[in-house]
Amino acid sequence: MSSRLFIRELSANDYTRSGWDLAICVSLFFQGVLCAQFAHYMTLSKRDSIWLKLFVTGLAVLSVARCCQCLAIMWMQNVTLFPSVEAASTLWLRHWVPKSNIMLEATGALYVQIFFSRRLWASAISRNAYIVTICLIFFALGLVTAVVGTVCLFVNRITWTAGLISLHLGLVLCGDSLLTASTVFYLLRHYNASILSRSPFAIKMKLLVRLTIQSAAPAAICTFINLVADMRLFLDEIEDPRALMAAFILIIALPQLYAWSAMWTLNSREDIWVAVDNRTYTVNLATSAVLADLRSVRGPHVGEVPFQGTQNNFAPSRENEKLLSV
Length: 326
Prior knowledge:
Elements: H1 2-7, H2 12-42, H3 50-80, H4 85-89, H5 91-94, H6 96-99, H7 101-122, H8 129-154, H9 158-193, H10 200-236, H11 241-267, H12 269-278, H13 288-296, E1 308-309, E2 314-315
Antiparallel strand pairs: 1-2
Helix pairs in contact: 2-3, 2-11, 3-7, 3-11, 7-8, 7-9, 7-11, 8-9, 9-10, 10-11, 10-12
């Protein structure tokens, strides 16, 4: 019986309905992870600015809205339309709730992308306006293509929708890659410029590089696979049910991966400070005063340190603060 169950050929309707069910399960799983991250942030946010707290609040609202949309789709597919397999399988073409999926994904992704862009600009890591502007242009064009793709979906231009979603994901992936690469580049440049290669500042730079890559990787991989699936749908004119199932799952999970990335970055600030404070390192007497000052100085918000950097030295400066946010 079990062998017959796994080797039987599934119909296109089976792939469509199972794709939504799997996507909703993935969404609920990530929502549980996000709830734990939000709860952890509440214990660490006492010294954060009001704007950062409002950002996290907005992120929580967007993630809850995504979760409510998934529950509504599951109810309609498995309860309201349960007697009609055909109607349940074509729900994403007929009802406005699943049709709004693209806009929810684009809005959630843009919200986090603006946060990371501001992080790159407002910190002391980089003041290169060209890089931040190019990233924002990619993200804005991605939002425009998502809006046009949603309009095409509402007027039943399905093939055009697949092509526009592919363009949207490609623009988002380019912007994310440029943003992540720029952040890593400037972190490494500050790390290599410091002669105190085992100082707390250098250790913190290394940890920030690792955190930046690890937090950006899941969303980038998900975006790339989603791009491949949507390109397959566009080229095959929505005739590949497996690619359609993969697109459903990935586009549901993508905004929550962005939210998870932002919350991981925020919640890792105190862990980085603990790792820096507990790290053993050796220095000579000429630099011991600088290192002692670095260990004692904390910025006005958790995870921030004021410093004034030159090519060969990094020393704290309270008169002219530049905040290096995690």
